[in-house]
Amino acid sequence: MNAQAASADDDGQAGAAQKADAGAWLAVAAGTIGSFMATLDISIVNAALPTIQGEVGASGTEGTWISTAYLVSEIVMIPLTGWFVRTLGLRNFLLICASFFTLFSVLCGLSSSLPMMIVGRIGQGFAGGALIPTALTIVATRLPPAQQTMGTALFGMTVIMGPVIGPLLGGWLTENVSWHYAFFLNVPVCAGLLALLLLGLHHEKAHWAGLLDADWLGIFGLAAGLGGLTVVLEEGQRERWFESEFIIILSLVAAVGFAALLLAQVVSREPVIQLKVLRNRSFGAVFLMMLAVGMILFGVMYMIPQFLAMVSGYNTEQSGYVLLLQGLPTVFLMPLMPKLLEIVDVRALVIGGLLCFGIACFINMDLTSQSVGTTFVASQLLQGVGLALAMMSLNQAAISSVPTELAGDASGLFNAARNLGGSIGLAMISTFQDRRLTYHTEVLGSATTANSPMGQDYLRQIAGALRGSGGDTAMQAMGAFAQQVQLQALVMTYNDLFWIFGVVVACAIPLAFLLKPLPKGAHIAMH
């Protein structure tokens, strides 16, 4: 009888453990909102960047630091988050980060000079970088295994939808209200976030002594290595790469940083991040594929608005609606992903997602000077399917490939790979766009000179259309001829860029065969 009673009690406790209380869901809501705001602020400012540059007195080159400052500080913070959580406690750390994210958002919104804006963006990046991986920590620690699938689906949508909605929201605010509200928008949201954190997370005692015993060599190495590398990738083309003393110095800083990080793996009792997870065949493959996914996610989201602005004459708000298309399949597929991961081999899902990415890129290789937003509908929807399939599948493959005690390190590296991939992708675009544009302009210019029969016919057509407009029609026709050559060269350059990104994805697909199948009957969760 006692045994039966004990068994009944155990069953009752097990049943209760399968349902999270209201406080747990408040915590999950806080993590979801935090990660959404952090990812949103990567792209929301890009839409308003030309306007911001003018108001803070920055040139085009100087203005890029408004985006670069955020990306660099965020990518440095993401891998450090696990150590901060262990030292300060999850609630303490998130309350600090949410508060600083709010304060630095206000500083950005009030900025009247470039240095003031850059300081604000650096602070935003450090605080926001902590909000992304900790969202997964909340799901893993506050929800029972049976309900973690819902929490991870919510997180997956925020990570994808943040960068997608950002350009549209930033463009709309800039066109209809003011760019300042791209930052002030964070204030009421973060106020709600702070309330949810206080209600949903338990207080944990901070281990302040951990600051003294920390792996400071590794922390320095991580900051210098990732920070230096990201700046080199972001600014390399503008500075003409290694023709610039600035890029050479930063490259040396990054090299020293990574060397210090590797040394810390040997000499530190508890390294700030365990790089040994990269030696795991399955996780190493995930890391490389996530670099490719980051390249596509951020690279394509940069190329399409640029093409629509320069070729089709779209404003930022109109381009934002085109980018929003890729979020539609994500919204529908993300809730289904936990079930798909249970019944379909994770390798098949990853390959399917990468194939969608590659096909989407190759579809965009037939752009013309007449292409408009509707041209990108099919590719954007296909990329949305790819994001839903690949992102969550890769995350789950990453976590299942490492021991539980290394899940935090794996999560940090996984999220850092996404952002680092984005920086690599943008660096590739900047470099190849410059070189391929020069190449196509020279080829078209030599093939269709004003002295060739085709060039003469075209000039006569333009001159006829301009007759009666006043001025020197011959000179106007020559100017229009040169503009048309430049426009066609630009379109051909974008076709080349989409081909390059499609090839990158194709090269990443074989890595999926290195993944391990998920354990049968295992609960799907991301940490």
Explain how this protein is built:
The protein is mainly α and 527 residues long. Among the domains are: 21-214, Growth Hormone, Chain: A, CATH 1.20.1250; 215-271; 438-494, no CATH class. The chain is 78% helix and 0% strand. Helix 2 runs antiparallel to helix 3 (60-88), helix 3 runs parallel beside helix 5 (114-142) and helix 3 (60-88) packs antiparallel against helix 10 (216-235). 50% of the residues are buried.
| Fourth CATH level, the homologous superfamily of the domain at 21-214 | MFS general substrate transporter like domains
Class per helix and strand makeup: mainly alpha
Q: In CATH, what is the class of the domain at 21-214?
A: Mainly Alpha
Mean pLDDT: 79
The main sheet comes to: none
Topology as a string of helices (H) and strands (E)? HHHHHHHHHHHHHHHHHHHH
Per DSSP, the total helix count is 20
As a whole number of angstroms, the C-alpha radius of gyration is 25 Å
Shape annotation = globular
The N- to C-terminal Cα distance equals: 41 Å
CATH fold-level name of the domain at 21-214: Growth Hormone, Chain: A
